[in-house]
């Protein structure tokens, strides 16, 4: 039997939910964080996890991100992606960039769980709109992945459509004040800079023309060579694992309530690369490094009632503050994943020590 643990944003005492980055002095940048310092600081955005454990072999799961609580197929959000290095097996990115919109929740999982998660998103969309694929267009599921095969027996194909549906349900459930991070959901079996990686998050508050806005980042951190990690104060963390070629991946999901259109969101997504680089990564040959950004400021109707739709967008010369917020939140989200993750032993006895344990050494 696979032990399956579901969690929404409520803080629950399951493995992997440790302290936040700022609790270890690993905050990044100068802009102020949001009240939760999480992607869920952007109003309407919700996160849920499904965590899978089985014996010593299965360490994996699914993480769901909901841009808003309504029907995304009918009320889409502007979105864009940026592929920093394309060694990945994600699904749905091509249509996001062609149409500039997102019409399903985002699911994160392991490389071999993509198909099961796509099925779950299609069924989820049809449940909300039975005409999909018959009287209306088909739906574009968006699933992004990292390879957790060092700690997880990825050939076991442990992630099912039911697990993905449980992550979606956890995200939609009533939320508490805190989002679980670390070795949870899709982050359960991930490694980062030779340490235990996983799910991390951070947010920034911005004032634009004296109006408050927020930008949040969520990362699936599974990248970086041992010994390359740089902390915000400039310290280099000595390797806790044998050096090997860069074959990991990182997924960055960015949410904001700033009114941005597709082209601007693509520019924002590109700045996630700055935050990743600050932590010490160079996006190696075998790394799948992808950022997806969306805005909740306005929705785009599937069945428009007018030929011309009004849109608000941020003036181009005001983008620098958004770029800074993106870089800072992304870098701190990586620190958050490392800070929260627990030391883990998994498939074939492979072991990943936590950053907290390394920093506690004399």
From TrEMBL:
The organism's place on the tree of life at top rank: Bacteria
Coiled-coil positions: none
Protein name: P1 family peptidase
Family: Belongs to the peptidase S58 family.
Molecular function terms, GO-annotated: aminopeptidase activity
Taxonomic placement: Bacteria, Pseudomonadati, Pseudomonadota, Alphaproteobacteria, Acetobacterales
Organism: Teichococcus oryzae
InterPro entries in UniProt: ArgJ-like_dom_sf (IPR016117), Peptidase_S58_DmpA (IPR005321)
